[in-house]
# Entry
Amino acid sequence: MLYNRNQYILIQCPISVTGSFTIPSSVKSIDYYAFWGCTGLTSITIPSSVTSINTQAFRGCTGLTSITIPSSVTSIGNNAFQDCTGLTSISTHLINPMNLNTSVFFGVNTSACTLYVPNGTIPLYQAANGWKDFINIIEIGAITTGIQNIDMKSIEIYPSVTQSYIKINFDENSIHNNLKIFNSLGQKVYESIVTENQTELDVSNYPVGIYYVQTNGGNNQMKGLGKFIKK
# Structure
């Protein structure tokens, strides 16, 4: 890595870098084009010392699947995450999101990539330029409001993106367990007892958004979790 003398600025990352990388806590600014073309980079940890992510800083990092933007960041330059086509989630701790140039996330699939934001800030992100392009915006704390733990056995749901119906497959251990569906605010919108290996539900009247499907055993401990997107 190339830094300035005091290591306040991360100037350049070699494009040969692969896997995960943690930016040192001395860094305050990620320079122009710093990670441009680092296609082997899969994850990056940005410390709370960083205040600026400059123009095209992560452009073309196609292997990057998720990124967290700390609350310390006050500026994000044009095309900063352009063509980061592998991104499936972006977490931001910014309470007051700044308006961004629409080029910041150009090339990112804003329909499939989920944007996680602080509690109570969804309306702010839905109104802010650059952020409002994301279809799926979830409050970071919301999934723990009515949902116990997202690191559980996966439930098979298809189609994962729907306008009308979903089919849910269960293993034998889930039969006769409690099935619940929560919206992104952690509010329960459906509940029933699972009696078959597969069930079909009409979700055509559900508002657009992400929904979590949860099964609970007889002791009310969660046994499985899945999600689908209503568009």
